[in-house]
Amino acid sequence: MLISKRLFTFLLLFLRLSILAHAQQQRGFVSIDCGAPENFEYTDGNIKYSSDGTYINTGVNRNISSEYNYPKNPTLPQPLSDLRSFPEGKRNCYSIKTPIRNSLHLIRASFLYGNYDGENKLPEFDLYVDVNFWSSVTFRNASVQLLMEIISLKVSEEINVCLVNKGLGIPFISALELRPIIYGPVYATKSSASLLLFKRWDIASVNGSGRYEDDVYDRIWSPYSSSSWEILETSSAINDDKNGYKAPFEVIRTAARPKNESAALEFSWESNDPNFKFYVYLYFAEVEKLQKKQRRKFNISWNGSPLFGPFSPLYLQATTVSNSKSLVGNKHQISISRTADSTLPPILNAVEIYVVRELDAIPTFEQDVDAIMNIKVTYGIQRNWVGDPCEPKDYIWDGLGCNYSNSPPLIISLNLSSSSLSGAIAPAISNLLLLKSLDLSNNSLTGPIPQFMEDFKSLKVLNLKGNHLSGFVPDNLLERSRAGLVSLSVDDQNICGSSTCKKKNIAVPIAVSISSVLVLLIALALVRKLRRKKASDKEIEKANKGGGTIASKKWQYSYEEILEITKNFEVVIGKGGFGIVYRGELKDRNQVAVKMLSPSSSQGPRQFQTEAELLMTVHHRNLVSFIGYCDDDNKMALIYEYMANGNLKNYLSDKNSNILTWQKRLEIAIDAGQGLEYLHHGCKPPIIHRDVKTANILLNENLEAKIADFGLSKVFKNDNTNSESEVMGTTGYLDPLYYKSRKLNEKSDIYSFGIVILELITGQPAVIKGEESEHITAWVTDELKRGDFSRIVDPRLEGKFSASSMEKALGIAVACCASPSTHRPSLNFVVQELKHCLEVEFPSHCDRFEMVPRQVYKEMYSSSEPYSYDTDSFTSPFAG
Ligand SMILES: *[C@@H]1O[C@H](CO)[C@@H](O)[C@H](O)[C@H]1NC(C)=O
Ligand SMILES: *[C@@H]1O[C@H](CO)[C@@H](O)[C@H](O)[C@H]1NC(C)=O
Ligand SMILES: *[C@@H]1O[C@H](CO)[C@@H](O)[C@H](O)[C@H]1NC(C)=O
Ligand SMILES: *[C@@H]1O[C@H](CO)[C@@H](O)[C@H](O)[C@H]1NC(C)=O
Ligand SMILES: *[C@@H]1O[C@H](CO)[C@@H](O)[C@H](O)[C@H]1NC(C)=O
Ligand SMILES: *[C@@H]1O[C@H](CO)[C@@H](O)[C@H](O)[C@H]1NC(C)=O
Ligand SMILES: *[C@@H]1O[C@H](CO)[C@@H](O)[C@H](O)[C@H]1NC(C)=O
Ligand SMILES: *[C@@H]1O[C@H](CO)[C@@H](O)[C@H](O)[C@H]1NC(C)=O
């Protein structure tokens, strides 16, 4: 299906149609019967429960005692008849893959003590959701069924529900349920906050009701009535609230009205904590067919101050009303009172009351989490390694140390001594860049001491004693140990010094005498001096070469200077494909970023210098500018301007609490597009970036975007002759057509840029990790087909964008990813289109960008067919 020129019309239609499609029933429900026998599944009511073995591997299964159990207690829900208790460990966590990302989830934990341990002693413990405190769990008696519910936005891959032993009895849990709330926007508060259920009342009902499938979200409604109320009801169908609150029919069909027709309808509650912030959701639907002159109209107030109104519920139409500012205090009273011109008393059909719980603890730095998880799996480490490694602080993983002055927290020490580790030293350790202390002593580790050990710039303690490692400590580390910067403990055979030590290394055992240290230091100093001389020779040589502009500006730096600029590599600000990036400061106090290039990724030094100097001549407002480079005795570095807000990937991630508005996102896309456009059309010969991705789009203090790492792929081409056959780029951004054909052109960058725009729209990464990783294009296609245009848009935007601007941007992204690549638009076109998105959205904010007048622009592009849209061609790199 090939539709050109009519892309947007088509897309619009496509989206509208797909919104109508129905979501699957029970989609994304996770229902866990904790403590059930392994691989056990059954249906209770309409809900399919399964045992918990796949979500946790600690704790023991127990049954509640017979006096509380079936058959003595015939109404007992089956999931509550057994439980999992946690006699071991301070913190135990269930880890559940988020069923539907970027969705609100209702998380419900159920507890019934039922004297399962025969001790008849009620325990008390704490419940956490991810790194945040959820609630304390306390029981009134052994037969009370305690339900805890929280509604929380999940953007990350996993939900961890953790039970924490406070020393007041053994924690346990009976059931755990997850219900994605897929018909939003509902229960909206601040994005970092979650809502703790306080009360959920089916007003004027006797038995209470709800649960799936009466309630699509499987909420449980308790009956609530008052002697001063009368019941009204209907059996006619009632239309759902348009915002998706979807109260079940049983709940909404009954309403209460005050018996005294002139009195207000009132209810109240109290809070133990005067700081609790409450949100109340009031459900209304007129259930009486009103006569011509009848009118029901009322105002809603809280503790005497107006909340909402005047309001008249519509006949057989549900409406949900909520407070926009939270309600704070000990005592709360809601009054619904008729207005003067109302002929009928007020009504109320249902109520939900929630307490705001800020979930603002920040989980550990993602890269560190990935690394430590990898280490955990590699060595099969048991311990208490569940949930987040560093948070909450009191439950940090055994053997880890974290630095909390950064946000997110970082892992700075790892102690796995005497842990029966075997095999090689895990390469994942190299990703814990900021390790200060690493203790792997007294294990059965084999294999060489990896070279990466010298990359830990902050390392103070390294203990590898008591293993069967081969090879030697890297030179650099040995030097640092000799200079007293690192406390190094290794087995004798790993210290260089025997005849096997043929490296150019300074061949002295660590246990050197004072005098030899002195000799060594002198030797080192000499080497340094020689190196410096070499560097300055180079500079003279260059100046002599006569390249006027080159000589007039200092571009080349020695390794010594790099050490000075970065204060001995003090602060790591990133890690890219070609090496680690450090923060630095030049003599003029200007901040810079210094990328140390790993020698393995480079080509000959001569070539490096040529390319580096070429890069220094590329200037554009939206390209990160190069300030200099270092090419000193195999130590190569690039120095470029410091970008205060880091890269777009991190800025966009859910770990960042700053939320980019749609306007800002468009501006960033335009900035980045302009940078790329310059590389493609402003440079001779054109520069193809080859690695366009959010991690390579940097943001300055004003959140203006600049492209980084351009030209590097060229610098690092190993061999000019076969460059066509060597695929470069990053998974998720790699043009599937380039991958297949190995023919590189600008269109590959455009594909990657399309992925970047999709990320800006959705807030999702290019590869969405879940049970199975999914490419963003596949996910977007799926979601669109499934009918949720609103759900592909980043929920953190809270609906603050115009649909036409969003649809247009989506259209651009889709076009960029089209296949064949000739159908992809050029960057000029993409940039102009993006500017028009911004113009649609915020006409007054376009001043920052130069606009091609609408008329000219039309003429420029209407003659040819700039791009087309082929649904089948919107392929993901994983598709095969
Ligand atoms: C709990 O009871 C069920 C059924 O009576 C039984 O199959 C199961 O083994 C019991 N579990 C434990 C841990 O005692
Ligand atoms: C346990 O507490 C509930 C709720 O307070 C109460 O209804 C029930 O009677 C109590 N049961 C016993 C055995 O005390
Ligand atoms: C409430 O439940 C009882 C017992 O299950 C039943 O007899 C009664 O009809 C129910 N009442 C309503 C209004 O559904
Ligand atoms: C009904 O309510 C009104 C207003 O609150 C009050 O003045 C009146 O006394 C009430 N009537 C009865 C019978 O309670
Ligand atoms: C109802 O609310 C409106 C608007 O806040 C106010 O003007 C009116 O006086 C209120 N009526 C009553 C009876 O409280
Ligand atoms: C934690 O990090 C901060 C900032 O990077 C640093 O100043 C501090 O010394 C670190 N603390 C420890 C214990 O490493
Ligand atoms: C690692 O832990 C062991 C015992 O748990 C302890 O003896 C050792 O000192 C620790 N190592 C470091 C570097 O702190
Ligand atoms: C070495 O580890 C073993 C267990 O793996 C332990 O029994 C022993 O005490 C440890 N030795 C030292 C010196 O820590």
From TrEMBL:
Q: Which reactions does this protein catalyse? A: L-threonyl-[protein] + ATP = O-phospho-L-threonyl-[protein] + ADP + H(+); L-seryl-[protein] + ATP = O-phospho-L-seryl-[protein] + ADP + H(+)
* InterPro entries in the cross-refs: Kinase-like_dom_sf (IPR011009), Leu-rich_rpt (IPR001611), LRR_dom_sf (IPR032675), Malectin-like_Carb-bd_dom (IPR024788), Prot_kinase_dom (IPR000719), Protein_kinase_ATP_BS (IPR017441), Ser-Thr/Tyr_kinase_cat_dom (IPR001245), Ser/Thr_kinase_AS (IPR008271)
Q: What is the protein's given name?
A: non-specific serine/threonine protein kinase
| GO MF terms held by the record | ATP binding; protein serine/threonine kinase activity
The source's superkingdom equals Eukaryota
Keywords associated with the record: ATP-binding, Kinase, Leucine-rich repeat, Membrane, Nucleotide-binding, Phosphoprotein, Receptor, Repeat, Serine/threonine-protein kinase, Signal, Transferase, Transmembrane, Transmembrane helix
Query: Span of the secretion signal?
Result: 1-23
What organism is listed for this UniProt entry? Acacia crassicarpa (northern wattle)
Q: Which PROSITE patterns match?
A: PROTEIN_KINASE_ATP, PROTEIN_KINASE_DOM, PROTEIN_KINASE_ST
